[in-house]
Amino acid sequence: MENMQGIADRIREHPSIQIEIVNGVDDICSVCPHNVENRCNKPGSNVEQFDQEILDRLEVDIGGKVEAKILLNLVEKKIEPEQLSKICEGCEWLELGFCEDGLRERNWWK
Ligand code: SF4
C-alpha cells in the first residue's frame, strides 16, 4: 500500500512522467511477497487477464511508453467505474473500493 501511494504521489508531482506499458507484474508489485521472479504467484490470480482486458480497452501496446497524464486521461475516457466489477472480478483490491472511487473522482491525479 505504501509503495502504491508513493507511485501515485510521483504521478501527481510529475504528470508527464513516462509509464511503460506491461502485462503482469509492475512497479506496484515490486515489494509484494507474491512477486516471485517477476511473476505473480498468488493462487487464483488473474493479473495478466485483468491487465489485457484494460490494455485492449485503452488500445495501448505492451512495451510502449505513454505519458502518465495521457494514460490516465485515456482511463477516464474509456473505462466507467461500474465496469471494474466485471473487468477485475475476483481482485481483492476491488472489494476495498479504491479503484472505483478513484475513477469516479475522475481527477485524483490532477
Ligand atoms: S498479488 Fe500479484 S499482481 Fe498483486 S501486487 Fe502482488 S505480485 Fe502484483
Q: Describe it for me?
A:
The model has no long low-confidence stretch (mean pLDDT 91). The strands form 2 sheets. Strands 1-4 form a two-stranded antiparallel ribbon. Helices cover 47% and strands 9% of the residues. The chain has one domain. It is built from 6 helices and 4 strands. The longest helix is centred in the first third of the chain and has 12 residues, at 2-13. By secondary structure, it is mostly helical. Iron/sulfur cluster binds at residues 25, 28-29, 32, 34-35, 40, 42, 45, 47.
Note the main attributes of this structure.
binds iron/sulfur cluster; 110 residues; two-stranded antiparallel ribbon
